[in-house]
Amino acid sequence: MKATVVEARRETVSRSDAPAARVLCEALEYETTESLEFIDITDDVISVVEAAGIQFGQVAIFSQHTTAAVKINEHEPLLLRDLARTLRQFAPPNAYYEHNDFSRRTVNMNPDECANGHAHVQHLFLSSSETIPVVDGRITLGTWQRVFLIELDHPRRRRVLVNVVGTA
User: Fold this and answer.
1) Is 56 helix (H, G, I), strand (E, B) or coil?
2) Which CATH architecture has domain 27-92+116-167?
3) What is the C-alpha separation between 53 and 139, in angstroms, rounded?
4) N or C: which terminal CB in the chain sees fewer CB atoms within 10 Å?
């Protein structure tokens, strides 16, 4: 069966021919309080974009952790509970993970190492970063979209980089 070719609809949302780029990278720190915690960081990202003073470009939000993810989704409490339950089903904390076998594991160990294999496996289904276009000085999230830092491990301090690149 042959697919029908449909002409793609293209729309220029914004365009800038300004020669000089602006770049701003800020680190945001958060103290998480529980495992599988969804922290809405959208307003903080917006503040960094506003401080950068760009009109056209993009913002990348990056978690510097392998057990804390950054994702865009809807901030609706029941949905967030569904997402947390689904992640627990994919990688239950009480399942066996070779990563947690400290009698065999010999790399990337800390003196206070905890059993967090489940958090690494959950992170596999998520991501470390999101990139959002900036148009007319504003991030272009959809109606219900918000940016979340997702704690997959245990409560601790987390660091997120917000990197804005664009033109004024």
Assistant:
1) strand
2) Sandwich (2.60)
3) 12
4) N
Tokens of 83: 């997402």
Q: Which residues sit opposite 26 in a β-bridge? A: 162
Which token pair is 37? 């915690």
Alpha carbon 57 to chain centroid, angstroms? 18
Instruction: Mark out the alpha helices in the chain (DSSP H runs).
Output: 42-52, 77-90, 117-124
**Amino acid residing at 7:** E
Tokens of 57: 């470009």
pLDDT in tens, the chain (168 residues): 565 556 666 565 556 566 678 999 999 999 999 999 999 999 999 999 999 999 999 999 999 999 999 999 999 999 999 999 999 999 999 999 999 988 898 889 888 888 999 999 999 999 999 999 999 999 999 999 999 999 999 999 999 999 999 998
Q: How many Å apart are CA 87 and CA 148, to the nearest integer?
A: 15
